[in-house]
Structure of YCII-related domain-containing protein:
Amino acid sequence: MGKFITIGYGDSAGYERTAEEVRAAAHEHDSRLRAGGAEMGIAGEPVQVRNHDAAGTQVTPGPFLRSDLPVAGFAIIEADTLEEATRMVAGTPCAVAHGVVEVWPLQS
């Protein structure tokens, strides 16, 4: 079984224009993923950390990556294949509410 990092992107406009019953089902889906062991959370405000050549740590507020939609949350899930991981996140709020979910395989 492999581990995957997921990054959900979405904004309140996309969420609000999604039917309430679809959103409710997506939140129930997340609850089932959590019950199955997925670690999930809503994204807070990030910082960038640099320590080039181990010469001293520099911390800068804000994200390094930019996207059309804001980062909404992260999860760590376990699945046998990338295809299974994508099926697992296809029902999450970002995926169904006009956002997108990236699935990143963790390689050892």
